[in-house]
Protein 1
Amino acid sequence: MPWWIWLVLALFMLAMIIAGLVYAGVHGMHALRDVSEIGGRLGEKFAEMSDTDDDHRVMTPVSFTQPLSAAQDRYADAHAEVIKRKAAKRERHIQAWNRWKRFNN
């Protein structure tokens, strides 16, 4: 091969390496900007989480210091909510199946 072909190939290789570095640098700067924005938002959220409003919060006693009937009542209420959610879900499924049954009629 003539010497000028090697020169063209070497210049092309250098141009591609430089273009790749520029491409990586530009995208790296964009990524750093995005990461800094996300970090700023996370910092704000963590700052909000660390702020305590003691005057607005009612301190409830720890569950093991309360009588057993209080825990039983909370459990019964929570279980009743679970049953209500399951019944509502079942009702939604029944309604959906009824709509699908009438779809092709």
Protein 2
Amino acid sequence: MVEVRPILIDGHPFIAVSVQLPKTNLLAVAGERGYIMCGALDVALLNEKLRDRGIIAGRAVGVRTFEQLLEAPLESVTVAAEELGIKRGMKGKDALLKMR
């Protein structure tokens, strides 16, 4: 099953996507410039192989719901995200607000 729904953070719109797979769920919340995602996101790949794309993204681990993803500290972020002031340990929702 795939779920797509809008989420407001401090009055700003974002899109939340959940993909239910066998034994796991993929979670992501995206804005116009970037996104945060569950532990399935490979930040090293984005930073190394796809660095020229300047992908703004962050990864939170151990999350199972959108609410947890928004509140969780980011475990890792891309180089492009760091350039916007997004840091490891920042809450997902705070990172998203910097991505709008």
Protein 3
Amino acid sequence: MEFDLHMALVILAAAAATFATRIGGYILITRMKSIPPRMEAALNAVPAAVLTTLVAPAFFIGGWESKLALIVALFVGLRVSHSWMLVAAWIVVMIWRHAGV
């Protein structure tokens, strides 16, 4: 395997950009005396947006076991803790795969 300077520079640039965006947000928030309501609403929406970007591709690209597991996880998650939601979805996938459907 040969050292590729171009690839190393791309990786370093990506690392610097990631670090700058993370530290920039922290510096911006700590310098503010109070967080404006619109910014607080946007920050509160981030977890749902991240979860959607993780779940949506699995639902639309995955097989039927993924779809069923996500639907079960949704309904179980509305009733009990997140740990039980993960266990329920895992059980659905394992049963589906074990049955060989």
